[in-house]
Write a structure and sequence with these properties.
six-stranded mixed beta sheet; Urease, subunit C, domain 1; 14 helices; 29% helix; globular; eight-stranded mixed beta sheet; TIM Barrel; alpha/beta; single chain; 441 residues
Length: 441
C-alpha cells in the first residue's frame, strides 16, 4: 500500500511539474543599465545612487549614476529607492537532487558505498525542480549541489538556478570532495536522562580515513609512466585535493573533531580545507585562522546543541568568527533543506541583528562564499568583468518583511520571478473574488 501511495503522489507531482515548469531565460541580447538605488557590492562597499551596467552577461560599469553615459545602453531600469545585491549563493545544498522526501524515486542525493569520491552530484541536478523558482524569488540565484551519506559522500559542483539542463546551468563542475568526519561523542538517552558518551569507534574510523587518504595521495603523486597500476576512479576523484584544485569539505561540529581535521590536513598535505557545520568552530578559531581553513556555518535558526550553551549562541556564531578573522559563509543544512533555502537571506539578517554589520551579512552570502568555492573570479560580487548575476529588491533583502525582488538576472539573463506558490496564491484570490495584488513571501 505504501508503494502504491508513493507512486500516486509521484505521478501527481510530475503531472503538476509538467504544467508549471518555467522556460529558462534567453541569453542577454540588449545591454542594460540599472540606474539609481543603493548597490551592496558584496565586497563590503556600498554605492548610493548607483549605476550598474552589463552586456553579454558581463558587468561593464559600476559607479555613480551621475557619471555614467546612458546612451551606451539599450535599456534602462529605474531602481531609485531600491536595493541592488549580488545573487546570493547557497552551499551544501541538495536542491535539485531531492524533490519530495517521502518519495524514494525523487531522492537522488545518496549513492551506494562508503568511500565514493568519484561520485559527481552535479549530473543529477534537476533544472526543472519546482523548488528552484521559489528560492530565486528571495534572491538565491546560485548553489553548491552536494551529495549525502557515507564517509566520503562524493564531489559537489556549483550551478546557476536557471538552465535547460545541468550542463547549461553549471558554473564549476567539481569544486571539492565531501568528508563526513566521525563523531567524537554521541548522546545517550536512558529513562529520560541524556548524557554525552565518547564514541568507541572514533579512533578506528579516523584510522580508516587516514589510511584511505594516504593511499590516494600515493596514487596522486606516483609517476604515471613508472607506475604499473591501473587507473582507480575513486583515487582519481581525489587527485585535485593534493594539487589545490579541489577543496576538502569536512562535515564536523565539535571542537575536537574540527581541530583533529585541521591536523589531518597538515599531516596528509591537503591544500584547501573547509569545515561544514562548525558549531564549535569559534572555540578553535585560532587554529582555523592560522591554517587558512574556512567555515560554512550550519543554519543559525536552530537550537543550541547543549543545554549549557547560551540560547542565542547559534545566532552569534557568525559574529564570533568574524571577530576572529576566520573566513566564513552561511548555509541551510537542516530539515527540509531544499525548501528552507528560500530563508537563507533571513539567516544572514538574524546574524546581522546579533553583531554582523550590514555588509558583513551580505558578504556571508556572496563574496565570502564565492571565495570558499573558488569561483570568486567570476561570481560573488558586483564588479566590472564579473558575471551579471544580481537582483533588485524594493526593500532590505535580508529582512523577511521587506525582501521583495522586482528584477533578477543570471549572467545577464532576465529571470522570471514567478513560482508555483505565487500561482496558487493568485488562483485562490480569483476563486474568492479577492482583488489581485502582489503575492506575499
Amino acid at each position: 500500500m505504501k508503494k502504491i501511495i508513493s507512486i500516486v503522489i509521484l505521478g501527481l507531482f510530475f503531472t503538476l511539474g509538467l504544467i508549471a515548469q518555467q522556460t529558462p531565460a534567453p541569453e542577454q541580447s540588449r545591454s542594460i543599465l540599472i540606474l539609481g538605488g543603493t548597490a551592496h557590492l558584496g565586497t563590503g562597499d556600498v554605492i548610493v545612487d548607483a549605476a550598474i551596467g552589463f552586456r553579454a552577461g558581463k558587468i561593464d560599469y559600476v559607479g555613480r549614476a551621475f557619471q555614467v553615459d546612458k546612451s551606451k545602453y539599450d535599456d534602462i531600469i529605474d531602481a531609485s529607492g531600491k536595493e541592488i545585491y549580488p545573487g546570493f549563493i547557497v552551499t551544501n545544498s541538495t536542491i535539485g537532487l531531492q524533490e519530495i522526501g517521502a518519495v524514494r524515486a525523487s531522492r537522488d542525493q545518496y549513492e551506494v558505498g562508503t568511500f565514493r569520491p568519484n561520485v559527481r552530484s552535479l549530473i543529477a541536478f534537476n533544472t526543472d525542480s519546482e523548488i528552484t523558482p521559489t528560492v530565486r524569488t528571495n534572491g538565491v540565484l546560485m548553489g553548491q549541489i552536494t551529495p549525502r551519506g557515507g564517509v566520503i559522500s562524493g564531489s559537489s559542483g556549483v550551478v546557476h538556478f536557471d538552465g535547460w539542463n545541468w550542463e547549461d546551468a553549471v558554473v564549476k563542475m567539481v569544486d571539492g570532495v565531501h568528508l563526513n568526519w566521525p563523531m567524537t561523542h554521541h548522546k545517550h538517552n536512558r529513562l529520560g536522562k541524556v548524557d554525552i558518551r565518547k564514541s568507541k569507534t572514533y579512533n578506528q574510523s579516523k584510522h580508516e580515513i587516514t589510511t584511505y587518504f594516504s593511499e590516494a595521495k600515493a596514487y596522486a603523486t606516483a609517476n604515471p609512466e613508472a607506475s604499473s597500476r591501473e587507473m582507480d576512479v575513486r583515487h582519481e576523484g581525489m587527485r585535485g585535493l593534493f594539487d589545490g584544485s579541489l577543496a576538502l569539505y569536512v562535515h564536523a561540529d565539535d571542537a575536537r573533531a574540527i581541530s583533529e581535521a585541521v591536523h589531518f590536513k597538515r599531516e596528509i598535505g591537503i591544500s584547501r580545507m573547509v569545515i561544514i557545520g562548525g558549531y564549535d568552530s569559534y572555540l578553535v578559531a585560532d587554529i582555523l585562522r592560522e591554517n587558512g581553513v574556512s567555515v560554512l556555518l550550519n543554519s543559525v535558526h536552530r537550537l543550541p546543541r547543549f543545554k549549557e550553551d547560551d540560547v542565542d549562541l547559534p545566532y552569534r556564531l557568525p559574529k564570533l568568527l568574524a571577530d576572529e578573522g576566520v573566513l566564513f559563509g552561511l548555509q541551510v543544512d537542516a530539515r527540509m533543506t531544499e525548501m528552507n533555502t528560500r530563508n537563507l537571506p533571513f539567516y544572514a539578517g538574524t546574524a546581522r541583528k546579533y553583531g554582523l554589520t550590514d555588509e558583513q551579512a551580505v558578504m556571508a552570502l556572496t563574496r565570502n562564499v564565492a571565495q570558499i568555492l573558488g569561483i570568486d573570479a567570476t561570481c560573488g560580487s558586483i564588479e566590472r568583468g564579473k558575471d551579471a548575476t544580481l537582483f533588485i529588491s524594493s526593500g532590505d533583502a535580508l529582512d523577511i518583511m521587506t525582501n521583495n525582488l522586482t528584477h533578477a538576472f543570471i549572467q545577464g539573463k532576465h529571470i522570471d520571478l514567478d513560482n508555483r506558490q505565487r500561482e496558487l496564491y493568485r488562483k485562490f484570490q480569483s476563486k474568492y473574488g479577492i482583488e489581485s495584488k502582489d503575492s506575499p513571501k
